[in-house]
């Protein structure tokens, strides 16, 4: 049975320009679909019927789809969905399968440029994973720094080359637990130094520590390095010319960052208290006009993914809490499921390991779950 294959980029373009002509049909089980899916896709869970060889049962479920739409089938890794797409074609449908499935969807990026008086922030939105990376560019020259790179390093290299930028530094706010850092791979590829807080890594690989550093200069643009513990002990935020804050997982637009990953229950409660102190003693003393750029998002459809500090405080319930005990209780009760494979990913990131792409992508499969609620 033959089947057409659609790349993740091609699907993204279809969604942008021909959304009304397609139906994205996810064939995974209901609980898998509910946990992580492509926006506006539907779930027809025929994967188990395929495994059982129940051809008649598959066709009975699939015939519920309209024949005047282009059907794009999706599974976890893009294998079983090819079979279902072939069955649909035999049934008289126009159908294609998403290449590499949800694993492939993780590779998609959208790019937004946000202008400030003396610098530009380029936000890379990793559509399927909810991860955010940033290139900060001085308007005075072509000099730039890269913050929170993913393993898909060609996204940044291609942008840098296309805009004739000079990359000067590669930075991470902390050792992530839900996705691999591309910092070391990029450093090896480009020869540019990789920086992270030594308090957040194992320390036996080649990097430069941000511990004790107070600022980085990008021509006349000053990037203040602010210790902002809570999500992790060594988390940092970067305040750019007092106008923009890249804050890692300290705050998402939907919630503060979770304080529990790789921590005991006792340390989780302590971490939530530290996060409260960081917010009230450091972040809330900034001007409310400062733009907040997190490193992740969950459900927000705002693009680019940014709000002013004042806007974020007005819409985020825990940021309005003034009692530390109430805040701790809110963050530590009903904590979401942990990110898939987070313990392994965290260890690799702390060790500065450069992981083969296929293996890294497999470990990263699934949504980010860095928000506390």
Provide a descriptive summary of the structure in words.
With 373 residues, this protein is an alpha/beta fold. It has 2 domains: 4-104, Rhodanese-like domain (Oxidized Rhodanese, domain 1); 108-364, Metallo-beta-lactamase, Chain A (4-Layer Sandwich), CATH 3.60.15.10. It contains 13 helices and 18 strands. The strands form 3 sheets. A 7-stranded mixed sheet has the order 6-7-8-9-10-11-12. A hairpin with an 8-residue loop joins strand 14 (221-227) and strand 15 (236-240). The radius of gyration is 22 Å and the shape is globular.
Task: Set out the fold topology.
Layout: E1 4-6, H1 8-17, E2 22-26, H2 30-35, E3 42-43, H3 47-52, H4 55-62, E4 70-74, H5 80-90, E5 94-98, H6 101-105, E6 109-115, E7 119-126, E8 131-138, E9 143-147, H7 154-162, E10 166-171, H8 183-190, E11 194-196, E12 208-209, E13 215-218, E14 221-227, E15 236-240, E16 244-246, H9 265-281, E17 291-293, E18 307-308, H10 309-315, H11 324-332, H12 342-350, H13 357-364
Parallel strand pairs: 1-5, 2-3, 2-4, 4-5, 9-10, 10-11, 11-12, 16-17
Antiparallel strand pairs: 6-7, 7-8, 8-9, 13-14, 14-15, 15-16, 17-18
């Amino acid at each position: 049975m033959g089947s057409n294959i659609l790349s993740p980029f091609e699907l993204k373009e279809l969604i942008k320009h021909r959304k009304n002509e397609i139906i994205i049909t996810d064939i995974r089980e209901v609980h898998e679909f509910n946990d992580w899916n492509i926006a506006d896709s539907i779930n027809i869970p025929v994967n188990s019927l395929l495994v059982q060889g129940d051809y008649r049962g598959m066709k009975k479920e699939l015939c519920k789809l309209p024949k005047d739409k282009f059907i794009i089938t999706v599974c976890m890794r893009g294998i079983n969905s090819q079979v279902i797409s072939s069955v649909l074609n035999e049934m008289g449908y126009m159908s294609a399968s998403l290449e590499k499935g949800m694993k492939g969807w993780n590779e998609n990026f959208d790019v937004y440029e946000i202008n400030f008086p003396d610098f530009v922030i380029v936000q890379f939105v990793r559509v399927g994973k909810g991860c955010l990376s940033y290139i900060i560019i001085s308007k005075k020259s072509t000099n730039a720094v890269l913050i929170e790179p993913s393993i898909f390093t060609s996204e940044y290299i291609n942008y840098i080359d296309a805009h004739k930028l000079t990359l000067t530094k590669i930075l991470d706010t902390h050792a992530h637990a839900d996705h691999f850092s591309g910092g070391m791979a990029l450093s090896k590829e480009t020869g540019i130094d990789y920086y992270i807080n030594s308090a957040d890594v194992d320390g036996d690989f080649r990097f430069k520590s941000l511990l004790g550093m107070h600022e980085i200069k990008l021509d006349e643009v000053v990037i203040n390095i602010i210790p902002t513990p809570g999500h992790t002990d060594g988390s940092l935020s970067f305040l750019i010319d007092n106008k923009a804050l890249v804050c890692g997982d300290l705050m998402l637009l939907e919630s503060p960052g979770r304080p529990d990953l790789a921590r005991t229950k006792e340390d989780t409660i302590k971490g939530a208290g530290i996060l409260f102190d960081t917010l009230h003693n450091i972040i809330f003393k900034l001007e409310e006009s400062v733009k907040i750029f997190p490193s992740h998002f969950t459900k927000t459809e705002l693009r680019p993914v940014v709000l002013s500090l004042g806007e974020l405080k007005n819409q985020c319930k825990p940021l309005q809490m003034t009692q530390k005990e109430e805040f701790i209780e809110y963050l530590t009760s009903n904590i979401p499921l942990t990110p898939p494979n987070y313990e392994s990913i965290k260890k690799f990131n702390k060790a500065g390991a450069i992981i083969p792409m296929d293996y890294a992508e497999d470990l990263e499969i699934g949504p980010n779950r860095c928000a506390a609620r």
